[in-house]
């Protein structure tokens, strides 16, 4: 276990544009603001580089990871500001047919520490007609990712992943103290579920949760929920944004992880049940005891 330390985490809340250039300009300006306020770790939201109108426009502007100008600029910025910079995600070219929704953790020398491809695709029809088919354009990832920061271990996830608690449990069991959920939540589902889901993930795991959000009415007419959050391991919200772009910071005291886990050691109390279906008879008892 790392020593207990404190550092400043900042959530950069954005209203990403249609195109990469103005989005990058917005991101750079807000990240500089966060660093000026003393942030050591800065996170931006899901799809920090662009929110496009349709598949055709998206694919016209996609670059591969090797060629992406935003990633190069953000790496240089992290080195200049000497911060850990977590670009919540960039839409990048994966293949001729597919994009990938990829998160990047950049170290203070501009080095790439880790990247993560969003696992769970938002294929959803909301009441009222709003409809999403993320899997039509994006290749999902298959691997959860952790990385070590100077202050403790961090787990990487994106947005809709937050609805799959087993992923967060697995990251916490792999030693994470910080869980990250950069997002572009819809306004409707955000109003209904955002705070509850993020607080639950923090409480269940005894981790800090860092979630930078997209906010407001975008050029592509999508409306995102905003309310970037930092939640401590007891489930308390210690920083929160509104619906405007901006920077939201909190001091992170990693001793809070140990305190929360000592008080409620649910992470050590693993799954201890099978599932009985009395109608089907005893041979249909699914034995899952012992797994997480
Ligand atoms: O496609 C883009 O431009 C950016 N990506 C997104 O907005 C993604 C996939 S469509 N949004 C979500 O996952 C929202 C999840 C959500 O709102 C919920 O779980 O309720």
UniProtKB/TrEMBL annotation:
Recorded GO MF terms: hydrolase activity, acting on carbon-nitrogen (but not peptide) bonds, in linear amides
Pfam families given in the database record: CN_hydrolase
Keywords: Hydrolase
Lineage top rank: taxon: Bacteria
InterPro entries: C-N_Hydrolase (IPR003010), C-N_Hydrolase_sf (IPR036526), Nit1/2_C-N_Hydrolase (IPR045254), UPF0012_CS (IPR001110)
EC number: 3.5.-.-
Domain CN hydrolase as annotated: residue spans: 7-254
Record keyword tRNA-binding present: no
Family under the similarity heading: Belongs to the carbon-nitrogen hydrolase superfamily. NIT1/NIT2 family.
The protein's name in its UniProt record: Hydrolase
């Amino acid at each position: 276990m790392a020593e207990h330390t404190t550092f400043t985490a900042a959530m950069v809340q954005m209203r990403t544009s249609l195109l990469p250039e103005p989005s990058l300009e917005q991101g750079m300006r807000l990240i500089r603001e966060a660093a000026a306020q003393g942030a050591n770790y800065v996170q931006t939201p899901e799809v920090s580089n662009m929110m496009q109108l349709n598949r055709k426009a998206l694919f016209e502007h996609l670059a591969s990871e090797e060629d992406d100008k935003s990633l190069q600029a953000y790496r240089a910025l992290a080195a200049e500001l000497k911060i850990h910079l977590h670009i919540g995600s960039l839409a990048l070219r994966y293949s001729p047919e597919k994009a990938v929704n990829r998160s990047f953790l950049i170290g203070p020398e501009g080095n790439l520490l880790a990247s993560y491809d969003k696992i769970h695709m938002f294929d959803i029809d909301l009441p009222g007609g709003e409809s999403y088919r993320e899997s039509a354009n994006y290749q999902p990832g298959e691997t959860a990712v952790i990385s070590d920061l100077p202050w403790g271990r961090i787990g990487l996830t994106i947005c809709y992943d937050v609805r799959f608690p087993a992923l967060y449990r697995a990251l916490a069991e792999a030693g994470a103290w910080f869980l990250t959920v950069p997002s572009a939540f819809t306004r409707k589902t955000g109003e209904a579920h955002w705070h509850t889901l993020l607080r639950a993930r923090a409480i269940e795991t005894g981790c800090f949760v860092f979630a930078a959000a997209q906010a407001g009415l975008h050029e592509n007419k999508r409306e995102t929920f905003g309310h970037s959050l930092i939640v401590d391991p007891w489930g308390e919200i210690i920083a929160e944004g509104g619906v405007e772009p901006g920077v939201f910071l909190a001091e992170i005291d990693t001793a809070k992880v140990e305190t929360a886990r000592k008080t409620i050691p649910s992470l050590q109390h693993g799954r201890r049940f099978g599932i009985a279906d009395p109608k089907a008879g005893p041979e249909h008892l699914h034995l899952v005891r012992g797994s997480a």
